[in-house]
Amino acid sequence: MEDFRRIADAVAGEIASGQLRPGDRLPPQRDFAYRRGIAASTAARVYAELTRRGLVSGEVGRGTFVRAMEAVPASVLAEPWQAPINLESSFPILPGQPAALAQGLQALMRPDALGLALRAVPAAGTQAAQAVASSFLVQAGWSSEPARVLFTGNGRQAIAAALSALAPVGGRVGVEALTYPVIKGIAARLGIALVPIAMDAEGLRPDALEAAHHAAPLRGVYLQPVLHNPLGLSMSPGRRADLAALLQRLDLVAVEDRVFSFLAGEAPLATLAPDHVIVVDSLSKRLAPGLT
After folding, report:
1. Domains of the chain
2. What residue stretches are annotated with the HTH gntR-type domain (predicted)?
């Protein structure tokens, strides 16, 4: 009789290689025993060993499922210095964050509350949700009118919605010369041409934006004035005032991505040019990227 540990090793290898993915259901133990040509008792020991290793979990009445693998700890310092560093994904990690998040989610564990939370809602949400979001987004004395708050599934969807509203297929949208990498994919799917705008130590340069607009009219501009990703730059109050004045003079609308600005506590560009700025913010960035 084949040692049950060897069979467990084989299944573990299928999980590690991706043949069996998180959430996949393993066959019932009797079916597993028949396919492998082993005794039912051996199959039971295989499943028990996989459970002991934390690779699968059994649910009464449903079966045995492959568990999500734990993230492998890694250090940037351990990577070869020649390797490229991915700047696309960056997010805050705060001490005690999982415990605080678990406490906050306890209120959703009631069936009535969970049912409401999982219900599909239109872009405008509800008046109550708009009021909550408006108060949530208050920063440095700025807040949006609740009726002007719209909801999307995540920040990327909000950016895509804003750009598609501003620019038709083939339209030109200005971006910082070194911009958030995901914006390139969004623009490609929308058929929008991105125009790189020169930057300096404070971010996007207003004079470069004006020159690009005069060269060929822009339909909008996407930028991150506070805690730019990936450079971490923030515009000074004077730079933001100059940029706001330029937007109004050119009648140009900016999409202001503020997903990390809560860490700085600075007022948005929309404070200075409310009718020429679309503010994009994100709940998941403040709590945990996995909530996206």
Report:
1. 2-66 (1.10.10.10), 152-287 (3.40.640.10)
2. 1-69
For 251, the 3-state DSSP assignment is coil
Q: Cα torsion at 57, 58, 63, 67 (round to 10°)?
A: -10
Instruction: Provide the pLDDT for residue 54.
Output: 86
Positions of the chain with pLDDT lower than 50, given as ranges: 1, 71-79
Look-up: residue for tokens 């911009």? 179
* Residue 287 CA to its chain's centroid (Å): 11
Q: How high is the pLDDT of residue 118?
A: 78
Alpha-carbon separation of residue 129 from 24, 133, 146 (angstroms)? 36, 6, 9
**Contact between 47 and 58 (Cβ < 8 Å):** yes
Q: 63-66 and 193-197: which strand pairing?
A: unpaired
Whether the bond into 230 is cis, omega within 30 of 0: yes
Rounded to whole angstroms, the Cα distance separating 93 from 98 reads 10
222-250 pLDDT tens trace: 999 999 988 889 999 999 999 999 999 99
Both tokens assigned to 242: 């100059």
